[in-house]
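Dear support,

I submitted the protein below through the web form. The confirmation email said the job was done, but the results page showed an empty box. After a refresh the structure appeared. I'm attaching both so you can tell me whether what I see now is the final result or a partial one.
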Amino acid sequence: MLLVTGANGNLGGAIIRNLRKLLRPAEFAVATRNPQSSFARELAAQGIEVRSADFDSMATLSGTFTGVRKALIISTYSDNSQRLRQNRNALEAAKSAGVRHIIYTSFINASNSQSEHSRLVHYPTEQAIKASGLTYTILRHALYAEILVSDLADTLASGVLRRCGGDAACAYIARDDLGLSAATVLATDGHENRIYTETMARTYTGKDVARALSTVFGRPVEYRSIPVEEWARYMVEKWQVPASVAGSAVGTMRAVEAGEFDIATRDYEAVTGRPPRSLEQFLQDVKAGGG
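What the results page shows now:
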């Protein structure tokens, strides 16, 4: 049995959509803190087993990984002060249940970087997985391209793309593309003890993104760099992101400015057999109503 955690999240949903194309419903299960959500009930009605998984509670995790040989663990959306402990709980439960292979969705350039997500969550989680003795595959994700269009209406109306980063280039990739690569790693062999850094074929500066928006949507858009200190307030006001989550993103923006994410690889194509969508292709899909 294969298992995907975080089933109710956006990334979890993308992975499950792709798994349904690769496997029969009986070949994998999903886990979530809320098995009664409408999406979870829909999956159950289609013959996919839905299990309970609260990374805060070892008691709820006791049966989550039973009979599972390969599990894909998606970190929660909790405060960064809690996520490492949660990930360790899931890892311990998986190992105790006899899981042999852990796949973990990590973050680009996971290290002791300026990014709080990397320093407090993803890098130490990677180290714990390696120390567990289990077979592993680590998927280091570039920044989701979706963050570039979270305020698309405002960007197009004002003609200004407001982001941090200065003149630095950054790696992006569409979340739905990552759903395919994660599903592929879960459903197939050959990725044992590998670390993949998944990005688009090239990196983009803020000016590059603004030009792509102008071209695709047929409206002039200029890039205006926001001081890192203002980023958390912008996320709260424009995207209604919880303040704790917005605050933790400030370090990520500092890492962008420092060039820590100016990384482009062909790992995604090595996993899936196809190149990731370019930024222009992604924007075309957004314009067409997809993403």
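Response: this is the final, complete result; the empty box was a page-load delay. The two ends are 30 Å apart (CA to CA).
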